[in-house]
């Protein structure tokens, strides 16, 4: 298991330590194969399962799930070639081209700090310009049908497909916390007939700044806790709530007199 290195936020950078329960570092989506076999078995019409077919279905299912986020649709436009899904010119090359050419390769320029109030956090060690694409959400592909209790806090669903769960395996993007004043935006996109979840920078970001995106109200409602981001000075709130009005500073007698004039 490759471990993410982290730096203690209170330290001077030399205080390097390992995250208590680190996930595996991966660059491609992974699967819990057995889980998908169970899922497939549950959805397979009983009457059609014959002994000879059983093996075939099993192999097919895993392959199908491995391709779960590759889709067949003529309605979606590829972010790289701008062609629609039914165009044969849109191929898997679009994915490799886009990730090689249009991604700011910041993977080695992200420092994982913490734990702080929100756990670990991702900070850039290089300046990043507005509109740059900085990463893809990577994790284990899991069935959408899993119950709420089986879904982790690193669960990101792709509607109609599957969910990406980065609890046990993932890349640096799993460490991005939520903010109501985010500097990164999350996009569900398609690249070379593949569903992807990408992150794009919303404004120029300076060295050392934390990278954050908005998880959305539904995330916090489901997770059963409130957002405690810096935009609200760490006060518990739900995304969309207005920041509580700050208490007026104590007025001095002098000021009151001046105003009274
Ligand atoms: C995708 S993880 C982000 C990385 C996480 N901080 C860690 O240490 O692994 C999401 C979890 O981080 C914490 N978190 C992130 N942003 C938060 C926020 N704005 N308010 C409260 N908790 C937050 C919550 O525990 C949440 O379940």
UniProtKB/TrEMBL annotation:
GO terms for cellular component: chromosome; nucleus. One of its GO terms (biological process) is methylation. Residues 92-216 form the SET domain. SUPFAM superfamilies: SET domain. This is SET domain-containing protein. Residues 35-55, 236-261 are annotated as: Disordered. One of its GO terms (molecular function) is methyltransferase activity.
